[in-house]
Design goal:
- The chain is mainly α and about 350 residues long.
- Helix content is about 65%, strand content about 0%.
- It has 18 helices and two strands.
- It has a two-stranded antiparallel ribbon.
- Helix 4 crosses helix 5.
- The radius of gyration is 26 Å and the shape is flat.
- The termini are far apart.
Length: about 350
């Protein structure tokens, strides 16, 4: 069937047609930014296309141009701005189609304007709001930005907001829109009408990993009083075994003195090569050989036992940090000076 008579063209076919239209040199540059699997799929699709009708070529190029234009407008002034400009250029229906495609491909989320705001300005903007409102906004921000705001909040609000982020699950579009209305910031009404996920324990862990140690300790200490289980779950995720690669040599050597060799061998049995390499680099050659022998003769081990051994070592690292004997690099002004 000729391409010009097809009523529906898949996204992969459109991408292949676009690459054909752009020519080999530009397509080769695009391929450099794609995954191997994507390159294989597109190559196969291109091979299966015998001809591209002028109408299809023009339609694909026009759609690509519109999406690029819309993306540029979103980067410049947000979804609402992009929608207004595209409506004037393309009409309401066409603008809606373009933005709808972009909200999926770009994963445009609520509070887009907030993510472009300086944390200090954002703090002045939201610090008087209810903790639940603050938690909702911070849950949608990048961890570095959210941590800056969380650190600057009054201490009596920090733990409350952190707890609300950790226990947040799914928020309806109506609630999000109401918060946006209260904050007097007009965002796009084109955000998907499905429920959107934000918050959760990992969200607050990402934020706390970026705040200064004082703020983190205050929040954790408060949560331990209010919700012990939640505090423990957060602490388990705050510094994981693989994060050992971020420690300096002195810190690694210090915590290794507290770790039982059998426990270390079990923990390393399930670790990645990078972790093993940096730990072995901070041990004597004789001890490295012993640990490797233990790992070899250990045979198959249960994942649960490996994770338990790794968690015990992580607990040792965090205790040493609390005692000021080692340093874990964090955001919020916790740069290390040697």
């Amino acid at each position: 069937m000729p391409r010009g008579t097809k009523t529906e063209i898949s996204g992969r076919e459109k991408a292949a047609m676009l690459l054909i239209a752009l020519g080999p040199e530009k397509s080769a540059q695009i391929f450099k930014h794609l995954k191997e699997e994507e390159i294989e799929q597109l190559t196969l699709e291109i091979a299966n296309i015998r001809t591209v009708s002028p109408a299809d070529k023009e339609a694909v190029l026009e759609e690509f141009y519109q999406i690029c234009l819309a993306q540029e407008y979103i980067a410049e002034g947000g979804i609402s701005y992009a929608k207004d400009i595209l409506e004037k250029a393309l009409g309401s229906q066409k603008a809606l189609e373009v933005i709808n495609r972009l909200t999926v491909s770009l994963q445009v989320r609520p509070f887009d304007f907030v993510r472009k705001t300086d944390p200090s300005q954002l703090l002045n903007f939201i610090q008087g709001e209810h903790p639940q409102t603050i938690a909702l906004i911070l849950a949608y921000l990048k961890p570095a930005q959210a941590s800056a705001v969380l650190s600057a909040l009054p201490q009596d609000k920090q733990a409350d907001v952190a707890k609300r982020i950790a226990t947040m699950d799914r928020t309806s579009p109506e609630v999000i829109k109401e918060v946006e209305r209260i904050l007097e910031k007009r965002l796009s009404s084109l955000v998907t009408e499905d429920y959107t996920s934000a918050g959760g324990i990992q969200a607050i862990v990402d934020i706390l990993n970026s705040v200064d140690r004082g703020t983190e300790k205050h929040i954790i200490d408060t949560l331990e009083i209010e919700d012990t289980d939640l505090a423990e779950e957060i602490k388990k995720r705050m510094f994981v075994f693989d994060d050992i690669v971020t420690l300096d040599s002195r810190s690694i050597q210090r915590f290794l003195r507290e770790v039982d060799n059998n426990q270390l061998a079990l923990a390393l049995k399930g670790s990645n090569e990078e972790v093993q390499k940096i730990i072995f680099a901070n041990m004597s050659k004789r001890l490295v050989e012993m640990i490797k022998e233990d790992m070899e003769f250990m045979g198959p081990v249960r994942l649960r036992d490996v994770e338990e051994a790794q968690q015990k070592i992580v607990n040792i690292i965090r205790k040493l940090e609390d005692a000021g004997e080692i340093v874990i690099s964090r955001g919020g002004g916790d740069e290390i000076i040697v």
